[in-house]
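DM from R.C. (forwarded with permission)

"hey, sorry to bug you on a friday — could you get me a structure for this? deadline for the figure draft is monday and I only need the backbone to look sensible"
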Amino acid sequence: MRATSSTLDNNRIKLVVEVDDTEMSEALDTAAASLAQQVNVKGFRKGKVPKQVLIANIGGPGVLRAEAIRESLPDFYARAISETMVDPIGQPDVTITAGEDEGMLVFEADVEIRPEATIAGYDALRVTIPSPVVGDDEIEAQINRFRETDAVLEDVDRPIVNGDLVNMDIRAQQSNTEAEPLEMSDFMYTVGSASIAPEVDGLILGLRAGEELIVTANAGGGQNVVYAMQLKQVKERILPELTDEWVEENTEWPTVDEMRDSVLTQMSKMKVVEAQMSQRDAMLVALGELVADDVVPEVLVEAEANDRMHDLGHRLAQQQMNLEQFLQATSQTPDQLLAAVRADAQRAVKIDLALRALVKAEDLEATHDEIDEELVKTAEAMSLDAQTLRDNLYKTGRVVAFESEVAKIKANRWLSENVTFVDHLGIVIDRELLREDQSTEIDE
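My reply, with the result:
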């Protein structure tokens, strides 16, 4: 088989494929064997019908050739993709130009290919991740959580501040419904907890016991909830004095200094792990955002969205849950779910295009040795020998896809070593902190 490619307009290419007589003969034999399993011929068992008898019973050699072409064309096309090393992203428009009845089979395939994106500014990319450095305020907050277990509550006659406990009567009425409102008396609310609605915490500050607060909050799904709160009593937590005596009596540490050092050690491990776990996703999202939306092919977004919906359905089935139950549990409409899945699909496609662009920009194409090494690893994971996997990739037209995945692994490594990581304040994070091994137990 011989295949050539030429570039068309609108990000499309045309393949011209010539199928050798030997390959066509093999396709005819395969089609005959397949038909022999389906056709009933008097005097012969299925699968045992001689080829010439079969041809006579199905309408002649033209019928067999048509069936052979129909069955084999996808395989011929896949092998042509591997021969020409093009990267199609949609279904091809195939036209047989010769050999439909006899002679060498020749066909053309017009197909959309993956576009090449540009990622201007990738070499100066700043990526925000959680800081691996523990601040003094974070240490004090953690220590205060221990102190809160021994805190006492005292009534206060002053404006409400964060951390206060407010005793209130509360009435919640959902908009656009005739349902009875929910009412609770003597509800104890911790200011800053957002356990009623995020809007409450900002509006309750500065009020006093005896006042009323009415808040309209978004409940999702186009619904609002109106909360009417009668503030009856305000209490303040009085924490015990932080002394060596209190620490020794109420915690596992003998002194305040040892408690603080231990808290710092444990929080540092957790913060570094959190930063390390955020690195990859954050840098990929940042890189993907450099790709313009109008570069992203709709066919790729649709395929990615369909795959994600299929995976969701599979996971729900494993949990013995259907899509309707999932929507109810997550308070989503079908349109909201599809919009979220599509947004995730769009982001994933942009990341893929960006990584491929980075491979080209930094000359990170996979070498033969790197491809062979990854192929051996993949084959072992699939319980195959490497040559079988190599043959399967060729026959299914996945050679380019596999080599691109190897190159994207290199692009990921380049990115993690070259982007600048910063915290939420824009302060550059020491890269050595992100390389620290936190594999030991957090609670040692």
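R.C.: lifesaver. The CA atoms of residues 373 and 386 lie 10 Å apart.
me: no worries. The two ends are 64 Å apart (CA to CA).
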